[in-house]
């Protein structure tokens, strides 16, 4: 083929070193043999196209089977030039129709690469998707359990007598059920789609894989749950675990990678520690087990000769078969049998569960009561697991018999009585609180500062106090919801420090938070609590209906609790606290959010429940405290200020009787003088000058003065007697005149006893 002289000069110039450096390209000489018909009588046109090929794609960096690159732009340029030449020549020849060249091309066929000829995508990437099955079980269980912990539902179950062992077992069984369902769905789907790994593998093999890996995932979920304190942290841990699992699965997707890195016996000895670390991850075990199955039942690439080996039916003996072999790189491998891997997974799961139990006991956020770091060395711990109760420790005074500033004499007497009874006899028929205290760290906040109280069987102890006075803390300490830091308490002779699980079995509680599941109905809750407390009533359904009727929830018995109002949820909690015939019931503001009718219904139920039980109730409602309490304690800043019956506290801390009078506002000052003359012991309390209202307090020991006054007024109003009546003969002439003037000036008179609110203010205001 001849080359035009100009093109030859350009070509030669481009081969010079200077031009190559300037253009940054590499040129090659090449010859293309070709054959064409040459006719001298015809005009033949030759041309060459020079262009930069340095940025063209190179087949070397692509798949081995792909032919050399094709430049579509060059072909389009060549076709355009040919058509242009034809058009010029056709016009010169005077042709009416210009011929055009249409270009089409096709790559030559090639033999498929043997490395990909027998590839099965389910084998190559299946573990990345199948691992989602046990991870789904992890996500469901972990999210639900973390939600229960964040909403204090688990603690609520513990406080009604549900053991931690029963709680964990229930979730383990739930996880097993989810694992079985997911394994069936996965196997059915793979079998219906005709994937060879599912067609050649029995169901029990995949079930074992999903089961043991799910067990490990559940163990990790339980372990992580003992470390979290809120749901946001739970979400972070969950997503982190899933992300790490997916990355590990992607890295070990190819069986060759897993076997060469972790089961290569010619690797340095120290690399075995990497295998120990990876054995803590479920995704590592899953990819290994999945590879064990696929390299038997599916077409796979042989490590020895890089040839595709067809799969076969799975045999039972394959569970126990150890695989030996050699890689193409001459290093050897030994693959442990699938059975050994499953046993190893169960051992790792047991390790996670052991740590979960340990951290569950030493962190107070999990059970409310934290044990020491070496609790497992104590015989009492192991004896309690089999139901053997150990003797409670003898109470030791720790400097708590100390006077409290601003406490009333009733609180002093109560403290001395409790200490004396505790030192004489630790067995009590009721609740005895001995120096109970709670200090929150790290700010050293004393929520409760040594409380001494005793409540006998058949009594209700009402606890009043400002917000933050320590009422809820006291209830939480008695129920074991928080860890005490000082003193102790005994409930029917059992210590809340050592016998808490036994106490909870016979305890009812209406906590500040409602222990309710939104998905369950009222009747479902009654049945659930009865089963947890192992209660079997002769006619359980009738008992449930009667109890719901007593709290006004009978019409909503089959309604999901999630649809209840706040007041209805509190009534539900009150009803649940009575299940199991508990000997002690703790109630933290039980009537909060209730309407007057519902509140009265709950009060009637509480009155019924007093017989044979001890009830302790916190409240802000003065009427509720006065009506229900047999004994009343007022807390302020974590200390008991006064203790006694409502009437005793009124007599001791109140102002006696209160006299209210109404007169014309211009006569207020005159009425003050006259009333003081008639009742010298009266103490002025308050006055409303605009309405002519006056209020006086009369001490209890001067009640005779008050009775004589109202006897005289009542007699005059009924019979219209004169000052010469016998009732007036006890007064001097000046007093009788003052009374007559007072009767003419006062339009209304009322008398009442000191209110509990005044007692509360007197006890807490210092």
From TrEMBL:
The chain crosses the membrane at residues 122-141, 153-170, 176-198, 205-228, 234-257, 338-358. One of its GO terms (cellular component) is membrane. Gene3D superfamilies: P-loop containing nucleotide triphosphate hydrolases (3.40.50.300). It is a multi-pass membrane protein. Pfam families: ABC2_membrane_3, ABC_tran. Keywords: ATP-binding, Membrane, Nucleotide-binding, Transmembrane, Transmembrane helix, Transport. One of its GO terms (molecular function) is lipid transporter activity. The keyword Nucleotide-binding applies. It is found in: Membrane. Residues 431-662 form the ABC transporter domain. Its main location: membrane. It comes from the Eukaryota. Belongs to the ABC transporter superfamily. ABCA family. This is ABC transporter domain-containing protein. It comes from Halteria grandinella.
